[in-house]
Amino acid sequence: MSDSVTAGPAAWVNLPDLSEKLGVSISKVHQMIRDGQLLAVKHEGVRQVPAELVANSTVLKHLPGVLNLLRDAGYNDEEALRWLYEPDPTVDGNPARGLGGDRAREVKRRAQALGF
């Protein structure tokens, strides 16, 4: 994947800043990424997390479940990122935004359908 995503996140957070924002160690952030609770990709040469996927000091509630469904459907991290940011007005503009609102169930349903 190139260092930019066509329809991507508006803002990014590097891992040390995310560690501080979440109030956990940097090794915990790496563990969360390995465990599929967070999505991190290279952006501008540095591994970063889309800022929209972290609300206040927590990861969006439905993100780990959606990431798990996307991985089960064969998506790697870059493909999952593209899917989350594909324009879709029926889920608040794109699935990533939908995860933070009342459209989260619809986003999960669509991610689940990808595996079939």
Stretches where pLDDT falls below 50 for ≥5 residues? 1-6
Sheet having the most strands: 3 strands, antiparallel
Topology as a string of helices (H) and strands (E): EHHEEEEHHHH
Proportion of β residues?
5-15%
Query: What is the first-to-last residue Cα distance?
Result: 25 Å
* Rg calculated over all Cα atoms: 13 Å
Arithmetic mean pLDDT = 90
Question: Strand pairing plus helix content: what structural class?
Answer: alpha+beta
Helix content: 40-55%
User: How many domain units?
Assistant: 1
**Please, how many helices?**
6
Number of strands: 5
Strand order of the largest sheet: 1-3-2
The best one-word shape is globular
Domain Rv2175c C-terminal: 61-115
Protein name: Rv2175c C-terminal domain-containing protein
InterPro entries: Rv2175c_C, Rv2175c_wHTH
Domain DNA-binding protein Rv2175c wHTH: 10-53
Describe what you observe in this structure.
- The protein is an alpha+beta fold.
- The protein has one domain (12-113).
- The protein has helices at 15-22, 26-34, 63-72, 77-84, 95-99, 104-113, and strands spanning 12-14, 41-43, 46-50, 54-55, 58-59.
- Residues 1-6 have low confidence and may be disordered.
Key descriptive features of the protein:
5 strands, two-stranded antiparallel sheet, 6 helices, alpha+beta, 3-stranded antiparallel sheet, 116 residues
Write the topology of this structure.
Layout: E1 12-14, H1 15-22, H2 26-34, E2 41-43, E3 46-50, E4 54-55, E5 58-59, H3 63-72, H4 77-84, H5 95-99, H6 104-113
Antiparallel strand pairs: 1-3, 2-3, 4-5
Helix pairs in contact: 1-2, 3-6
